[in-house]
Specification:
Structural class: alpha/beta
CATH topology of the largest domain: Rossmann fold
CATH class of the largest domain: Alpha Beta
Helix content: 40-55%
Distance between the termini: 61 Å
Number of strands: 27
Strand content: 15-25%
Number of helices: 30
CATH architecture of the largest domain: 3-Layer(aba) Sandwich
Number of domains: 6
CATH superfamily of the largest domain: P-loop containing nucleotide triphosphate hydrolases
Length: 867
C-alpha cells in the first residue's frame, strides 16, 4: 500500500490501475469511482491493524473490456504494471506507470470509433488571436492553425476533439470563449512558451527549423503543437515515430461552415435520435480510413475549382468503367484499418494478427495500383504511381508468420515452420510428447508385464506412471513411489523427470524465441511507416470517390457544373436526406432555385406551415455543399458558382444553461452572419424574428434583408423563408428581391400541400389546419377558427386604420365573446364542455351496455375534473 500511495501521489488526477498478480486493483477513492463506472463489486482491504481501505478490481486479461468504459466516462487512467518477474525477486515487486490513457490519447481499439478520428487538441491564447493544434495519436495526423476565437471555435466544433489542453491560467478564458462542453486538461504555464515548444518539436522531427512544414510563421500554432508533444511525454507515450509531419490547416482553401450551420443542416450528426444526417446518406465507404476522410471532406468543402473538377472526373470515370468500380470495391474490403495498424507498429503495440492484416492489405493494394496506372484518368494514374506495395516486407511477413496467428503473442503458435531451426526442434520436443510417452508406456508394459500401466501428468508432481494394486508386485525396484490411491499407486522415474524438464523448458524457450523473431519483424516494419501511411491516405481518397460514385448511381445524382461565376442555378433539385426517408410510393416533389448577384439576389419564400419551406432552404445548401466536395448532386441539372461561406439561421431553441432566450439565440446567430458576410456567401434565414412580438420581428427581418440587399459590393445570395407576409412588399422597392411561395390547394376545407415553389407571395399560413392535423382537440380548433374570423372581420371593418388599433379592438371583441361563457357555466362554448358535448354526441346509445355506459360516464367526469 505504501508503494501504491507513492505512485498515486505522482498521478493524483488519474484513476490508478495497480497490477497485483493476475489482477488490476483500484484503492480508496479510485475504487469508489471505478466500481460505480464499471459496475464491479467494491470491497475493503485491511491496511494495518485498525485501518481499512476501499478496494475494487478485475482480472488483468479483461483490461481491454474495462479500460474503454473508464475513458468514455471522461477519466484519465494510469496503468501501473509489474516491471519485473515476481519469480525473479524475493522482495516487493518493482512497479511503475507504463501508460497514462486519457480520452484524447488512446490507441485501444475498444476506445476508438473507426469511423472518426480521436483528436487531442491544444489551445494557446495570444493578444488578439489563438493558436490551435490537433493530434490523432492513433493515425499520426498532426495539424495546426491560427486565427480569431471564432475561427478556432469552428475548428473545435468540426474536429470534435476528445480532450483539449489549456494553460492553467487560461482555463476560465477558454470556457468563456468556447463553452464548457469540452473535456479539458490544464498544463503549467512554462509548457506554453515558444522556446519550450519549438525545442520539443525540433527534437521530435530532428530538423533545424520548421520551414519544411510551412508553419514557422504560425507562432501561436507552434506553441500549441509543442504543448501536445509535451503532453505525450507526460502520458508515457514515447514511441511516436509515426508522427512524421506537422501540417497547416489552410483556412483559405475551404468553405467556412460555422457550428450553427453544421448543426442545423445535420451534415454529420442529427438533431433527432432517429434522424439521418447527410453523412449517413453519402457514406458508402468500405475502409475505416475512407470513413474518416469523408467526414473531414464534408466539414471542409473546397473553394477551388481545379481539385473539385479532379474529384468529379474520377467519379465520372467510375461511372463509365463499372469493372474498375467492382475491382476497387472488392480489394478495398480486404484492406482494414491500415492507418491505425501502422501507428500501432510505431508505438510497439501491434499484435501478430494485425501484422498479418498488414500483409493482406499490401497484397490487396497490388491490383489497385495496377488498375489505377492502367486507367486513362490523370488523377487515378497519379494515385497508382504513388501507391507502394512494399513487396519485401510483405513477403517477409508471409514467410515468417503463420496465416492465422493468435491476437496475443504470449499464446504462441505465431512464427511459421522453417523460419528458425532451433524453434522447430523445440516444437518437436514440446508437441510430439504424446508419441514419445506412448513409446515409453508400450516399452514398460512389455518389460514389466503390467498390461494396465499408464503414463499421465498432474500439476503437483508432473509426469508419473500409474499401476493398479493387482500388479504392484511387478513394479521394478528403481521406480520411486510418489502417491498411494485406493485402487492404484503412482511412481516416477529418472527418465520421466528428465523428459518433463525438457518439455517444460521447451515451452518457455519457444515463447521467448517467437517473441524475439516477431519483435525483429516489427522493428523492420518501422522503416515502412511513411510509405504505408501514404498508402492509407491514397486508399482513403479512392474509397471516398468510389462512395460518391455508388451514391450517385443508386440515388440518380448528376454531375454539377462548378465554376467561378456568381450563379446558383438548380433545376429539379431534391433534398438528399428527405428523399431517402419518404415511403416507397410517395414521390419527392423537386424544385428549381435560381440566385445570382445581379437580378435575383434575395428570394423571400412565404407559404403555409408544413409546406416545405425549411426543406427547400436546406436542400439548396446541401446541394451546394455536395457540389463543392466533388460529389454528384440530386437534381436534373445544376450550376454552382463557387461559394466561400454558408450561413444558416434555421430553427430556434433556448440556450437556458447560459441564460439565453430563443430570441437572444436568434439574434446572436443573425449578427454573426451579418458581421461575416462576403460577396460569395450563401445565406439561409428561416423564420427570423419569430422569437419576439410580431411587429418587432417584422421590423428586424425587414432591416436585415434590406442591409443584405443594399450592402455595396457584397451581394450575398440569400433565401429568406418567413411567415411575415408584409415582407412581400419589399419586392416593389428593391430590384434584386423576388417573392416566391410554396403552393397549396384548398378543396372543401381541406388543404393539399403541393410542395412546389412558384413565383409570387402568399397571404395564408393555414396554421389552424396544421393544428388539426397534429391532433389538437376539436373544441380548440373550432374556437381558433371563430377567433380568426373575428380578427379578419375587424380588419376589414377598420380598413386602413393603424394595425395597433385593429389589434386592440379585435382582442376586446374576442375577450367580450369569451366573457359570456365564463359567467354562464352552462354555455357550451366552454372548451371543456365542448369536449364533453363531442363525447356525448359520439355515443351510440342503442348499442351501449350498462358497463360501457358507466365507463363512458367516468371518462366524461375525468374531462371535467381533469383527474
Amino acid at each position: 500500500m505504501k508503494q501504491f500511495f507513492e505512485i498515486k501521489a505522482k498521478h493524483p488526477d488519474a484513476l490508478l490501475l495497480f497490477r497485483v498478480g493476475d489482477f488490476y486493483e483500484l484503492y480508496g477513492d479510485d475504487a469508489v469511482i471505478g466500481s460505480e463506472i464499471l459496475g464491479i463489486t467494491q470491497t475493503k482491504r485491511a491496511n494495518g491493524a485498525a485501518q481499512y481501505v476501499e478496494m475494487a478490481g478485475f482480472p488483468h486479461h479483461a483490461l481491454d473490456t474495462y479500460l474503454p468504459k473508464l475513458v468514455r466516462a471522461g477519466k484519465r487512467v494510469a496503468i501501473c504494471d509489474q516491471l519485473e518477474d515476481p519469480k525473479m525477486t524475493k522482495k516487493l515487486v518493482k512497479r511503475g506507470v507504463t501508460e497514462l490513457v486519457t480520452p484524447g490519447v488512446s490507441i485501444n481499439d475498444n476506445v476508438l470509433n473507426h469511423k472518426e478520428n480521436n483528436f487531442l487538441a491544444s489551445v494557446h491564447f495570444g493578444k488578439n488571436t489563438c493558436g490551435i493544434a490537433f493530434l490523432d495519436i492513433s493515425t499520426g495526423e498532426f495539424l495546426t492553425a491560427e486565427g480569431t476565437t471564432d475561427y478556432v471555435d469552428k475548428l473545435l466544433n468540426n474536429f470534435s476533439p476528445k480532450e483539449v489542453l489549456v494553460e492553467r491560467k487560461n482555463r476560465k478564458h477558454f470556457e468563456e470563449c468556447f463553452g464548457s462542453r469540452f473535456f479539458t486538461f490544464e498544463l503549467e504555464d512554462w509548457v506554453f512558451t515558444s522556446e519550450t515548444a519549438e525545442e520539443r518539436l525540433l527534437k521530435h522531427f530532428e530538423t533545424k527549423n520548421l520551414k519544411g512544414f510551412g508553419v514557422q510563421h504560425l507562432k501561436l500554432g507552434v506553441v500549441a503543437s509543442g504543448a501536445i508533444l509535451h503532453y505525450l511525454d507526460l502520458t508515457q507515450h514515447n514511441h511516436i515515430s509515426h508522427i512524421t509531419a506537422l501540417s497547416r490547416i489552410e483556412e483559405d482553401r475551404y468553405v467556412r461552415l460555422d457550428k450553427f450551420t453544421v448543426r442545423s443542416l445535420e451534415i454529420v450528426d442529427t438533431m433527432n435520435e432517429d434522424g439521418k444526417s447527410l453523412l449517413n446518406i453519402i457514406d458508402r465507404t468500405v475502409s475505416p480510413m475512407g470513413s474518416r476522410m469523408l467526414r473531414r471532406w464534408m466539414l471542409f468543402p473546397l473553394k477551388d475549382v481545379k481539385p473539385i473538377h479532379d474529384r468529379q472526373d474520377v467519379v465520372e470515370y467510375f461511372f463509365r468503367h463499372p469493372e474498375m468500380k467492382e475491382l476497387l470495391d472488392t480489394q478495398l474490403g480486404q484492406i482494414g484499418d491500415l492507418e491505425r495498424i501502422i501507428s500501432k507498429v510505431a508505438v510497439g503495440r501491434v499484435s501478430p494478427r494485425e501484422v498479418v492484416q498488414l500483409k493482406v492489405a499490401l497484397r490487396a493494394i497490388e491490383p489497385i495500383k495496377a488498375a489505377c496506372e492502367a486507367s486513362s484518368e490523370p488523377s487515378l494514374e497519379r494515385i497508382g504511381e504513388q501507391l507502394n506495395i512494399c513487396a519485401s516486407i510483405r513477403d517477409r511477413i508471409e514467410r515468417e508468420l503463420k496465416p492465422d496467428p493468435p491476437t496475443l503473442l504470449n499464446k504462441g503458435s505465431v512464427i511459421a515452420k522453417g523460419v528458425n531451426e532451433e524453434l522447430d526442434q523445440l516444437r518437436a520436443i514440446a508437441y510430439s510428447g504424446k508419441d514419445y510417452l506412448l513409446k515409453i508406456q508400450q516399452r514398460e508394459c512389455e518389460r514389466t508385464g503390467i498390461t494396465s500401466l499408464k503414463i499421465a501428468f498432474n500439476n503437483v508432481f508432473g509426469y508419473y506412471i500409474e499401476v493398479r494394486n493387482t500388479h504392484k508386485d511387478k513394479v521394478p525396484a528403481e521406480w520411486i513411489r510418489k502417491q498411494t490411491l485406493v485402487n492404484a499407486e503412482r511412481y516416477i522415474t529418472e527418465e520421466l523427470k528428465e523428459y518433463e524438464e525438457k518439455i517444460l523448458g521447451a515451452e518457455e524457450k519457444i515463447l521467448a524465441l517467437e517473441a524475439r523473431i516477431f519483435n525483429e519483424l516489427v522493428l523492420c516494419l518501422m522503416e515502412y511507416i511513411s510509405p504505408i501511411q501514404m498508402n492509407a491516405n491514397l486508399i482513403a481518397r479512392l474509397d471516398c470517390l468510389l462512395s460518391f460514385a455508388k451514391v450517385a448511381q443508386s440515388n440518380k445524382y448528376i454531375r454539377p457544373i462548378v465554376d467561378e461565376s456568381d450563379i446558383i442555378d438548380i433545376k429539379a433539385g431534391r433534398h438528399p436526406v428527405i428523399e431517402k426517408q419518404l415511403p416507397l410510393d410517395e414521390p419527392y416533389i423537386d424544385n428549381d432555385v435560381y440566385l445570382d448577384s445581379e437580378k435575383q439576389q434575395i428570394i423571400i419564400i412565404t407559404g403555409p406551415n408544413m409546406a416545405g419551406k425549411s426543406a427547400l432552404l436546406r436542400q439548396t445548401a446541401l446541394i451546394t455543399l455536395l457540389a463543392q466536395i466533388g460529389s454528384f448532386v440530386p437534381a436534373e441539372s445544376c450550376r454552382i458558382g463557387l461559394v466561400d461561406k454558408i450561413f444558416t439561421r434555421v430553427g430556434a431553441s433556448d440556450n437556458i444553461s447560459v441564460g439565453e432566450s430563443t430570441f437572444m439565440v436568434e439574434m446572436s446567430e443573425a449578427s454573426d452572419i451579418i458581421n461575416n458576410l462576403s460577396a460569395r456567401s450563401l445565406v439561409l434565414f428561416d423564420e427570423l424574428g419569430r422569437g419576439t412580438s410580431t411587429y418587432d420581428g417584422i421590423s428586424i427581418a425587414w432591416a436585415i434583408v434590406e442591409y443584405i440587399h443594399e450592402h455595396p459590393g457584397l451581394h450575398a445570395k440569400t433565401l429568406f423563408a418567413t411567415h411575415y407576409h408584409e415582407l412581400n412588399e419589399m419586392e416593389r422597392s428593391f430590384k434584386r428581391i423576388k417573392n416566391f411561395n410554396v403552393s397549396v390547394k384548398e378543396i372543401s376545407n381541406k388543404v393539399i400541400f403541393l410542395r412546389k415553389l412558384v413565383p409570387g407571395g402568399s397571404e395564408h399560413s393555414f396554421g389552424i389546419h396544421v393544428a388539426k392535423m397534429a391532433g389538437m382537440p376539436k373544441s380548440i380548433v373550432k374556437r381558433s377558427n371563430e377567433i380568426l374570423k373575428q380578427l379578419e372581420t375587424d380588419n376589414r371593418q377598420e380598413g386602413v386604420k393603424s394595425k395597433e388599433g385593429i389589434k386592440s379592438k379585435s382582442v376586446k371583441n374576442i375577450a367580450s365573446g369569451a366573457e359570456g361563457y365564463q359567467l354562464n357555466f352552462f354555455q357550451l362554448d366552454d372548451p371543456v364542455l365542448s369536449a364533453v358535448r363531442d363525447e356525448i354526441k359520439n355515443i351510440d346509445v342503442n348499442n351501449l351496455t350498462p358497463l360501457e355506459a358507466l365507463n363512458k360516464l367516468n371518462e366524461i367526469r375525468k374531462i371535467i375534473t381533469g383527474k
